[in-house]
Amino acid sequence: MEFAVKSGNPEKQRTACLVLGIYESRRLTSSAEQLDAACGGALGNLLRRGDLEGKPGQSLPLFNLPEALCERVLLVGCGREREMDDRRFRQMITHMATALNETGATEAVVYLTELAVKGRDLNWKIRQIVEVVEDVNYRFEALKSKKDTARRLLRKLTLSVPGRRELSGGEQAIREGLAIAAGVKLAKDLGNMPPNLCTPTYLAEQALALAGDFPALRVEVLEEADMERLGMGALLSVSHGSAQPAKLIRLDYRQGPAGQRPYVLVGKGVTFDTGGISLKPREHMDEMKYDMCGAASVLGTLRACVELQLPLNVTGLIPTVENMPGGRASRPGDIVTSLSGQTIEILNTDAEGRLILCDALSYAEQDEPAAVIDIATLTGACIIALGSHPHGLFSNHPPLAHALQTAGHAAYDRVWELPLWDEYQESLDSNFADMANVGNGRDAGAIVAACFLARFAKKFHWAHLDIAGTAWKSGKAKGATGRPVPLMTQYLLDRVAEAGRGAH
Ligand code: BES
Ligand code: MN
Ligand code: ZN
Description:
This protein has 504 residues and is α/β, with parallel strands linked by helices. 36% of the residues lie in helices and 20% in strands. It folds into two domains: 2-142 and 150-162, Leucine Aminopeptidase, subunit E, domain 1 (3-Layer(aba) Sandwich); 179-502, 3-Layer(aba) Sandwich (Aminopeptidase), CATH 3.40.630. Strands 8, 9, 10, 11, 12, 15, 16, 17 and 19 form a nine-stranded mixed β-sheet that branches. Strands 1, 2, 3, 4, 5, 6 and 7 form a seven-stranded mixed β-sheet that branches. It has a three-stranded mixed β-sheet with strand order 13-14-18. The protein has helices spanning 30-38, 42-48, 86-102, 122-136, 167-192, 200-213, 224-230, 233-239, 293-308, 353-364, 380-386, 398-411, 445-454, 485-502, and strands at 2-6, 18-23, 27-28, 59-63, 72-79, 107-110, 156-160, 217-222, 247-254, 263-267, 269-273, 313-323, 335-337, 343-345, 371-376, 391-395, 415-417, 435-436, 462-466, 472-473, 479-480. The chain starts with a strand and ends with a helix. The structure holds ligand BES, manganese (II) ion and zinc ion. The site of zinc ion has 5 residues, from β11.
């Protein structure tokens, strides 16, 4: 969809649809007041008759308003003025996008940008509108024989800004919103693909295709023989039970100053997780196709990076495998040697994510990274702990954790930090190897998994995002969310701003 910014009075807009807010109870927002004055009090009369209270979730289309140049007006309930916050604003935009799709309008001019949102500026509102509208209009129809294309008439949204001085900032906010939305869409598409099609080989092909579209990206795919040579025994053990060969995808984006240390993003790419010999129960096993959403978010974030032409060095590393219980699969009790040289007793083949990530983390050492952030649908325990709102955050470097918290708040793609204390490390003790791949109980599963990874991240600043609860939705709205592409893109945007401040 196309987005633009514009300044001007609502009654002067020659548009198919004017979108105006109404506060609870029946209070006109300032643009609604302007239009009301121009059309002889028609809006105020309507509200007095009780057609719209202004509650969140309400909307009302109006036709034939006297003296207005627009074909129709869509009034949108905003709730109480004092209660307008991030969450309310996004909900309101979700309702607006849904209601606009019900009208016949192909374009609209939106004045909801004028509403005051606690602690947020105009550019934040514009970027959120772009992201939320793209999110609402997303469909995954590639594999439906009949497409639902009849609806979705809306092609262009023009967002109002107070004056000409706000135009260029608004355009930048649209560019950022569109780049993030395109990254989110890529991550959703890959996540939603079925596991018979979305294999490790397919992910490697998608990375190569992305580099084909964007010359600023360079891609290299390590095959099993390469990984064998390097000594990635932990990673390779996971794919032994599968007919699909493992891959390690490396993407390099080098638009920062030469010699600037890269930010390395590592994404878990298990294209299907049966659990292996420690087989999962049957309920919801189809959802284990989403076990590559970390990988998808790395590709999505890199796509946003290239689109925004960020002056940074960024590397994406995607270890990708299928976890199957084939005849050559790992058994509980097997001991493997990781790239770091540390040995691991595999007590549960369903704790496979950490086995592929640990070798990817060791591999990242050679890049002398500024920071390494891994993104993984790592533990069911993280869903129990935090649910689906924040990503679980772990880090060995408090300033990095803080930067991710700040970025999460700015992008409204939030994180919540959990402790990485050494006390938890003891539960990974093994009688036969340097460590076991699971803790000796069920306690603190998300933390113990992060503690396992920490043993492979000692040589750099590192953070781990457990996205098991946030990467997809279950139930009727089942589908990938594209998170944490907004968070990661914001984190990188913030690094650009930081470098700019340092130069002055
Ligand atoms: N991919 C799963 C984690 C997961 C489970 C994500 C459910 C989303 C929903 C991971 O590979 C896994 O199986 N983890 C185990 C670890 C356990 C064996 C220590 C888990 O969480 O049960
Ligand atoms: Mn598993
Ligand atoms: Zn898994």
